[in-house]
Every structure is written in structure tokens, then in C-alpha cells.
Amino acid sequence: MQSDELKRRISAGRGDALADLVLKNARIVNVFTDEIDTADIAISGNSIVGVGAYHGRKEVDLHGKYVCPGLIDGHIHIESSMLCGPAFEQAVLPHGTTAVVTDPHEISNIAGLEGLDFMLETTKNLTLSVYFMLPSCVPATDLDESGAVLNAEQLRPYYGDPRVLGLAELMNAYGTVRCDPKILQKIRDCTETGKIVDGHAPLLSDKDLNAYIAAGVQSDHECSNIEEAMEKLRRGQYIMIREGTAAKNMEAL
After folding, report:
1. Does residue 150 sit in the same domain as residue 58?
2. Pairing of strands 196-199, 219-220
3. Considering the domain boundaries, does residue 221 fall inside one?
4. Count of domains forming the chain
5. Distance, C-alpha 43 to centroid of its chain
6. Exposure pattern of 37-54 as b/e (b: 16+ CB <10 Å)?
7. Closest CA to 128 of 160, 169, 91, 166
8. CB distance 77 to 104 below 8 Å
9. How far apart are CA 95 and CA 31, in angstroms?
10. Is residue 246 included in any domain, yes or no?
11. What is the pTM of this model?
């Protein structure tokens, strides 16, 4: 950030200078304190610099409309929506989802690196921010007859892409806790770049769960009840809650 830009941001935050944009009379969803604040929102450049009473070069009266941060979908397979990037953006952005973390597992199982490259290309330069986790299990199991095989060597160059955040749902929990060398190499490649490994381990428990987390797996989105979720949470995993479209298990979660 340039010095002049930093000074403008500070001055606008103090109210010494007009903000570029002020959203007047907003009801602000404060996700830090679980409160609804009524105030103006001051924006300088592309940054919110203050909440309170402000004036700006441009002012928009929201008349009490709610303002909340953009929602992030932490795990999704865009290709399973049957939409390409721009059409998917049109579907989710109006509902408040401003960023997604996608795992192109499905298309990569069919088309390999060509499918992965297609997803990266068709989600560039959208208003929706699209980040990627690299598919960890292509094919999903050694018994599957899919259209492609992706090994650690093929995935390794993609960690240099700033939109690639890590290694996606490590569904081969069985191989992970038994030190399958192909899985371990993918984990090492990911963690050595300082990126993260997502989990996918339904009903994994006890010492196998300990081993899975010791391997570096930081999350899980496959819990089916509170007991499973709490066991994983107690061991330090982040738990993603999502209702199964077939199970309809939101109440249990």
C-alpha cells in the first residue's frame, strides 16, 4: 500500500476527510459479537474504514437495510451444479455468496488435468472469488474405473497458483492412516508449500482419527451426529456443517 493511500484511509476513518462512499443508516450484522449495529459505513477505496456517523463524496441511504459480510462456501464442487463459472456466479452471488472454495474432483475424475485447467480458466476474473483445493483422490478409490489418474507429481505445479489453497477432501482415510506412499507424497507436497489439507472421513474415530489428524488433515465435513463432530473438534479439526440432500440431517448436525 502506498503512503498516500494509507493516509487517505486513516483520515477517512477518523472523519478528518470525506470517505469515498458512505452507506447511511445501515443495520450491520456484526459477526464478531453477534450484534446488529445501526450506523453508517465509511468506505475509502476498496476498504471499509469506519462504522459510526460519517459523510462521503457519495452517500447512499439504506433506510435500515441489513449489511453483512459476503458469505464463503468453504467446500463445493462447482461442476456438480452443472454450471460453468459465469453461470454459477449468477446463481449464487445474488444470495450473498461472494467466495467459494471448490474441489474440482468430479470433473478431474473424468478429464484429468484438462478438466482441472478448464475449471481454473472459466472461473478467472469473476466478481465471485473462486479458490481451489486440488483433488486428492483421482480416482476416488483404487477400485474405480474413472477417466483419469492424478498423482502427486502432476498436482505439484498447481500449488504455485495463488487461487490454489491446498489439498482437497482426503477421502482415502484408510490409506492415509496406513501410510500409503502415494497419499503421503501428496500431503507432503501440500504442507511444504504452507497450504492446508481438508478432510473427508465419515465415522473415523479413536486412534485412527488421531493418526489422520497427525498426518496434517485440518478439517472434516462428513460428521453425521454431534458425538462424531465433538470428537473431531476436541482433537483440533475445523468442522464444516452441511445438510445432506438425501439424509436431511440438519437437526442432528
Report:
1. no
2. unpaired
3. yes
4. 2
5. 25
6. eebbbbbbeeebbbbeeb
7. 91
8. yes
9. 18
10. no
11. 0.86
